Prior knowledge:
By secondary structure, the protein is an alpha+beta fold.
Amino acid sequence: MELDLKLIEESLYKAARELIEFANLRKGQIMVLGASTSEVAGKKIGSASSMEIGMALVSGIKKACDETGINLAVQACEHINRSLVVESEVAFQRGLEIVTVLPHPKAGGAAASSAYKLFKDPVMVEKISADAGIDVGHTLIGMHLHPVVVPVRLELEKVGNAPVVFARTRPKLIGGERAHYPKDGQGKGPVCQ
């Protein structure tokens, strides 16, 4: 079955906008994307990288992030230690560790390679603590999310053949039995679910 790349791009745009709203992300916060284009195409992860699918995935999410002032980080594969593509400005502002490597479809993956082509001034960083994330094809983005991670259910459940998992984060709850916590969970404090 031929994949509709425009539909993939539009679906990821819509889902990213939903996640930004649901997670109450503010300008300057970070969303991480991990994606297996092989899984989207119905193949085993890491076996059939597709720059066309990568471009569609990243373009949709990047458009949503650009419109809302959210910074996008795109995770590469384990062959380059799950490093991430970010704009150099984000790396410098946040004091992130820049590493020397260029992602390509066979070491880094097509999503990271696509981000490297689409970003204005891309650099690779070793790690990040993002505020929300989208994982397409079970690429395991958890290592790049702030603790505490909260799963989010959105309308989009699959991209092509790959399952999609969404997440937001919240501040840690601290204190003991006398502690009180805000109930809104939207910027003024967390909600335990």
